[in-house]
Amino acid sequence: MSVVRKxxxxxxxxxxxxxxxxxxxxxxxxxxxxxxxxxxxxSLAVLDEALSEIERRFGPGAPDRESESxxxxxxxxxxxxxxxxxxxxxxxxxxxxxLAAITDSCxxxxxxxxxxxxxxxxxxxxxxxxxxQLPAAxxxxxxxxxxxxxxxxxxxx
Length: 157
Description:
Layout: H1 12-18, H2 25-37, H3 40-58, H4 70-83, H5 92-109, H6 114-130, H7 136-150
């Protein structure tokens, strides 16, 4: 009769779990929140700069907005989306996503829908200024309206 010997290699993960040290989950979360919060001011500045640039180049009073490219508006809108986490309670992120959808449909059709873009710019300005103070139902109704506008097909106009 032969003897079977079992060999278990050391499990590094099990050892790390058993050993004391490292960060507690709550401490790691708190440190991450502090790190993210340190980005707030710079992110809001990028958001405001992008919105100002969009208004300057694509707003109702922009002298050359017809000659602007779809890609330029889309890129500026993506900048807003990237940093809008800090104003998610205002709905700016969702309004910017809706503006990106409008821009995408305009690019697809090769035609600007200025009325839809203007509505989105007005909404973005309002949401950025007082969106967090608006009643949630009003803010949600505004965002749903923007969604309907952005998903309306060119041939339905």
